[in-house]
C-alpha cells in the first residue's frame, strides 16, 4: 500500500489593463495617506498550467470542485499605518477567462479594476473564504493578517463551492496615480495564493502482494487530530499555533470520528490501484 499526497494548483494574481469601476470599492480609512490620490489596482487571476490538456487548474490531481473559483476577497492596507484602506468582494462572474498564450497559464481577468488610493500599500487576497470569516477581516489591522491565530473547521475550508486559499506571502507596492509613467510597474501585481488545506489519499500499489498466509481486505484510512488553528500567512520560522509547549487542548483538534461528511468512525476506503482522479476517496487536513 502506498500513500499519495495530492497537491493542488497554486493560483496567482497578476495585472491587466481594463475598465475602471468604483462599484463596491469600500474606502475604509482614507486618513493618514500622506497626500494620497485616487487610483486603481488592475487585477487578473491566473493558475499555472504546465501540461497542455490538463484540467483548468493545471493540476491533474485536482477535481473541478477542488479547483473551483467561487469568491475572491481583496484587502488593501496602508503599509505605513497598518490600517486597511480598501476591501473588495468579487465573485467568479467578475472575471473573464483569457487565452493562455505562450505562458500556458489559465488566466481570468477581472472585468473591472479596484478603486483605492496611491501610496505604499500591502495587498492580500483570499479565495473561496467562508463569507462570515472573509467579512470579519474587514477593517482589521495589518497585524491581524500577519500574526493573528485564526480558527476554522474543515467543513468551512472545504465546501462544494471550492477550497479556501490565501496569499502565500506579503506583497507591498507603491501604488501610482493613473497616467503615471510607473503605473504599470507598481499597480500591476502578481500575488500567489495557496490552499489552506492539504488533500490526502491512500491508494493500493499496483503490484501489492501479501508475503504470508491469508489475505488482506477492506483496507481503510483516516486522519486524526486535525488542527483548527492556523495562520493566514505561513511563518518563515515554521512555527505552528497548534503545537505550543504545554498548551495542548483537545477542543482545538478534530478526531477522526468527527470528520465532516464522514459517518461512523471517520475511516474511508483505500483507493484501488490506478484510480481515476474523479474517483479518489480523499480526506483533508488544515495547513498551518
Write the topology of this structure.
Layout: E1 2-6, E2 11-14, E3 26-27, E4 38-41, E5 44-48, E6 71-78, E7 84-91, E8 95-98, E9 105-110, E10 114-117, E11 119-127, H1 131-136, H2 142-147, E12 149-151, H3 154-157, E13 158-159, E14 162-163, E15 165-167, E16 171-175, H4 183-187, E17 191-195, E18 197-203, E19 220-221, E20 226-227, E21 229-231, E22 253-254, E23 268-269, E24 283-286
Antiparallel strand pairs: 1-18, 2-5, 2-17, 3-7, 4-10, 5-9, 6-7, 6-11, 8-9, 11-15, 11-16, 12-21, 13-14, 15-17, 18-24, 19-23, 20-22
Walk me through what this model shows:
The chain has 288 residues and is mainly β. The protein has a domain at 2-198: Immunoglobulin-like, CATH 2.60.40. The protein has helices spanning 131-136, 142-147, 154-157, 183-187, and strands spanning 2-6, 11-14, 26-27, 38-41, 44-48, 71-78, 84-91, 95-98, 105-110, 114-117, 119-127, 149-151, 158-159, 162-163, 165-167, 171-175, 191-195, 197-203, 220-221, 226-227, 229-231, 253-254, 268-269, 283-286. Strands 2, 3, 5, 6, 7, 8, 9, 11, 15, 16 and 17 form an eleven-stranded antiparallel beta sheet that branches. It is elongated and about 75 Å long. The model is unreliable at 1-19 and 49-58 (pLDDT under 50).
Amino acid at each position: 500500500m502506498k500513500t499519495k499526497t495530492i497537491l493542488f494548483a497554486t493560483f496567482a494574481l497578476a495585472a491587466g489593463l481594463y475598465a475602471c469601476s468604483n462599484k463596491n470599492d469600500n474606502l475604509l480609512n482614507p486618513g493618514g495617506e500622506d497626500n494620497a490620490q485616487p487610483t486603481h489596482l488592475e487585477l487578473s487571476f491566473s493558475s499555472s498550467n504546465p501540461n497542455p490538456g490538463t484540467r483548468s487548474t493545471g493540476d491533474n490531481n485536482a477535481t473541478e470542485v477542488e479547483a473551483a473559483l467561487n469568491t475572491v476577497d481583496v484587502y488593501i492596507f496602508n503599509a505605513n499605518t497598518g490600517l486597511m484602506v480598501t476591501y473588495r468582494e468579487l465573485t467568479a462572474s467578475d472575471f473573464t477567462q483569457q487565452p493562455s498564450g505562450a505562458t500556458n497559464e489559465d488566466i481570468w481577468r477581472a472585468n473591472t479594476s479596484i478603486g483605492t488610493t496611491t501610496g505604499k500599500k500591502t495587498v492580500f487576497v483570499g479565495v473561496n473564504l467562508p463569507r462570515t470569516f472573509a467579512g470579519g477581516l474587514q477593517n482589521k489591522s495589518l497585524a491581524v493578517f500577519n500574526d493573528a491565530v485564526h480558527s476554522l473547521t474543515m467543513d468551512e475550508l472545504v465546501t462544494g463551492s471550492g477550497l479556501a486559499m490565501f496569499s502565500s506571502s506579503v506583497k507591498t507596492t507603491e501604488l501610482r496615480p493613473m497616467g503615471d509613467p510607473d503605473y504599470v510597474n507598481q499597480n500591476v501585481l502578481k500575488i500567489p495564493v495557496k490552499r489552506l488545506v492539504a488533500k490526502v489519499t491512500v491508494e493500493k500499489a499496483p503490484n501489492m502482494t501479501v508475503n504470508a498466509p491469508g489475505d488482506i481486505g477492506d483496507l481503510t484510512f483516516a486522519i486524526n487530530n486535525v488542527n483548527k488553528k492556523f495562520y493566514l500567512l505561513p511563518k518563515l520560522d515554521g512555527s505552528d499555533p497548534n503545537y505550543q509547549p504545554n498548551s495542548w487542548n483537545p477542543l482545538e483538534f478534530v478526531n477522526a470520528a468527527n470528520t465532516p461528511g464522514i459517518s461512523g468512525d471517520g475511516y474511508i476506503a483505500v483507493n484501488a490501484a490506478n484510480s481515476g482522479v474523479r474517483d479518489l476517496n480523499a480526506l483533508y487536513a488544515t495547513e498551518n
